[in-house]
Each structure stands twice: as C-alpha cells, then as structure tokens.
From TrEMBL:
InterPro entries, A to Z: PhoU-like_sf, Put_Phosphate_transp_reg, UPF0111_domain
Classification via PANTHER family: UPF0111 PROTEIN YKAA
Recorded family membership: Belongs to the UPF0111 family.
A Pfam family reported for this protein in Swiss-Prot or TrEMBL: PhoU_div
Protein name: Phosphate transport regulator (Distant homolog of PhoU)
Organism annotation: Anaerocolumna xylanovorans DSM 12503
Gene3D superfamilies linked to this entry: Phosphate transport system protein phou homolog 2, domain 2
Superkingdom of origin organism: Bacteria
Length: 207
C-alpha cells in the first residue's frame, strides 16, 4: 500500500505568492489599458483571485493544525502565509478604490507604479520559491534585496506622485481620490517587503 503523500508547505506558500503575482499582473494590465466599461469585470476577476488565495490559505492552515512535524515552525508558516495574503489583498484594494471613487481617467504616472508592484511580486515569488532551498540557495538573498530596492522605488513614486498632486491642485475631490490611490499603491510594495523580511527572518532562525 502506498504511503500517504506528505503535504508540501513550501509548494503551498508558492501557490499563495502566485496569486499575488496574478493580482499584480491584472492590476497592471487594467491600468495600462484602462476602460471604464470593463472596470467592474476586472474588479470581479481580481476578487476571484483574492478569494481563491483565501481558500488556499485556509486549506494550508487546516493541514498545519494536524501536522506532527512541519518543515519549519508553525508560527513562521502562518506568518509568511498571512503576509503573502496581505499582498494579494493590498493589490485588490487598489482596483476596488479606483472603482469605488468612480475614476474615469488614469493619471499616466500610475502605470509606472503598477509596473513596480508587478516587479516586486515577481521577486517575492522567486524568494518564496527559493525558501525551500534556503540553506544552499544562491538566489534567495538577492531576491530579498531586490524586493527591498523595489519597495524604496515605490516610496519614491509615492512621495513624488503625491507631491505633484499638491503642486497645483484644482479639484478637491480629485486630490482626495488620487491621494488615497497613491496610498494604496504604496501599501502593495510595503506588503511585499514584509514578506521578504519574514523570509529573511526564517532563514536566520533556521540557519
């Protein structure tokens, strides 16, 4: 009789980070070809990604509750899983914010921000992929550093973007809307950095 297949937590975490990357790719695609007529459809598509990520996270936690000896500490698995989930949530929040405020036209500099978020999620994905091999990985440290660099790039985009908003404000509502959108964009990069920092902490604890 074949033995029971062991649940692969590293693969599960990678699956969660894949949802984050899919969300970031959808955000960039939506912003780069922004159409009000299809926005609700894109928001639903984004929500489906986020909902699938939630189901996958809960499935992983159910396995973890019953696990006798996980590959790394339970608290670390739960923490990094939640932080990856926070990335997906943060990306969804951007699109929901744009829809909620009935945005009709995208500021051109927003596309650069979505490109940075996508790059951040790609580096995070590789970092999670390499976590399985953290004792011998030649990529892991470089990806953590890259996420940190991209988060700093996101900070600069946020500061400069909001600064430009307030240089010559003409519409108070427009100002409020884009200040909030910028805040949510910046939160995406912060969430990716949280994952990278957690991965770095796990490596230190287990080395």
């Amino acid at each position: 009789m074949a033995g029971k297949k062991t649940y692969d937590y590293f693969e599960a975490l990678l699956g969660l980070s894949k949802f984050s990357l899919q969300a970031a790719e959808l955000l960039k695609k939506t912003i780069s070809d922004f159409q009000v007529s299809t926005l609700e459809e894109k928001i639903r598509e984004m929500h489906n990604i986020e909902h699938s990520a939630d189901i996958a996270k809960h499935d992983m936690i159910e396995h973890l509750v019953k696990e006798f000896l996980p590959p790394i500490e339970r608290e670390d698995i739960i923490s990094v899983a939640q932080q990856i989930d926070d990335v997906t949530d943060a990306v969804e929040d951007v699109l929901m914010c744009i829809g909620m405020f009935n945005v009709k036209k995208i500021r051109p500099e927003i596309l650069k921000f979505t490109e940075t978020i996508e790059a951040c999620c790609k580096s995070m994905y590789v970092g999670v992929e390499e976590l399985r091999y953290f004792r011998r990985s030649k990529k892991l440290h470089a990806e953590v550093v890259e996420v940190n660099r991209l988060e700093e790039e996101g900070d600069a985009l946020y500061i400069n973007g909001v600064k430009d908003l307030y240089k010559n404000p003409t519409d108070a509502v427009d100002l409020m809307v884009w200040t909030e959108v910028y805040r949510k964009l910046e939160k995406c990069c912060d969430a990716c950095e949280d994952v990278a920092n957690e991965i770095e902490s796990i490596v230190m604890k287990n080395s």
